[in-house]
């Protein structure tokens, strides 16, 4: 039975997508069978996987969500699961923004994504959901589907703001909708070693959450290689396996697994 992770942050640009993408390949390198789910209508993760025109993909997560909301039968997994270099993924497109609007009008529609992913859980060791930086109906669905939330914090962006509200929501979802939900921890991303800020924010995060939430030892350094690898639609393990960010994501993957025993 695979574990369902979700990368989350209530601010944009905290490296959720880059983390989902590189964590997927780092876990694969550790022998895990991984499915990455693009649950953001921006479809950035889908582009990372090399899909040039997400709008042209016939079955995306948006289509699956629509079918689920309408109580229609889902297509066979082979029709919507794509694969790149051994990592499977479910693409997204703008269709998901229509779903977002529709979900707001539906009652009791928090478990739509869960319904889709539970049917796939047995096929994978890890399923990772990449989310958008909002706390709307889509992310409630992601929280209702996930076992573990990985919170990405970008020290440059005062990303701690909004974190307490998000944690409150996690608590509510856990008690009302999904009792298996837990916070895996906080991952500091885009840490610029040349500035003192990363150190200061790390201390601030530690002081605030010590004993409450795990802060991963692995911190992802800022490097131009990340942007380049995204541009070329290659994970760091392919594009720049020697770079520090790649090593950090590999260590993070190990930490994540070790933590679960
Ligand atoms: N470690 C890093 N070093 C340098 N640049 C990075 C790093 N991590 C992410 N980036 C860059 O920061 C930008 C935002 O990253 P990403 O798209 O993963 O964030 P996000 O949290 O998914 O954003 P959104 O909220 O819009 O979905 C991208 O341009 C990405 O290439
Ligand atoms: Mg993103």
From TrEMBL:
What's the domain of life for this entry?
A: Bacteria
The family database entries (InterPro entries) matched by this protein are listed as: AAA_dom, DNA_Partitioning_ATPase, P-loop_NTPase
> What CDD domains does the annotation carry?
ParAB_family
Task: Pinpoint the AAA domain residues.
Answer: 5-182
Which Gene3D superfamilies does this entry report, sorted A to Z?
A: P-loop containing nucleotide triphosphate hydrolases (3.40.50.300)
Please list the reactions this protein catalyses: ATP + H2O = ADP + phosphate + H(+)
Indicate the family of this protein.
Belongs to the ParA family.
The subunit structure is: Dimerizes in the presence of ATP but not ADP; ATP-binding is required for double-stranded (ds)DNA-binding. Interacts with DnaA.
State the name under which the record lists this protein: Sporulation initiation inhibitor protein Soj
Q: Which organism does this record belong to?
A: Roseburia inulinivorans
The root-end lineage is: Bacteria, Bacillati, Bacillota, Clostridia, Lachnospirales
